[in-house]
Amino acid sequence: MSDGTRTAAPSPEDALRSARLLVRAEAAVMAIFATRAYELGWTVRAS
């Protein structure tokens, strides 16, 4: 894999895998953000 041919022409499976990882990472970040925003709003309302 050090000859550069693997990175020059990624296979559709690799592209699909990276797209899935990107979607999962984005969903995780959005879930964390939504949880933090909910906690912050709950704290503001409670006080």
List the helices and strands and how they pair.
Layout: H1 5-8, H2 12-46
In the predicted model, the low-confidence regions spanning at least 5 consecutive residues are none
Q: Count the E strands.
A: 0
Order of helices and strands: HH
Helix/strand class? mainly alpha
Instruction: Using the CA coordinates, give the radius of gyration.
Output: 19 Å
> If helices are DSSP runs of H or I spanning 4 or more residues, what is the number of helices?
2
Q: How far is the N terminus from the C terminus?
A: 57 Å
Q: How would you state the average pLDDT, rounded?
A: 84
Q: What's this model, at a glance?
A:
It contains two helices and no strands. It has 47 residues and is an all-alpha fold. The model has no long low-confidence stretch (mean pLDDT 84).
Description:
The chain is mainly alpha-helical. Helices cover 83% and strands 0% of the residues. The protein contains two helices and no strands. It starts with a helix and ends with a helix. 0% of the residues are buried.
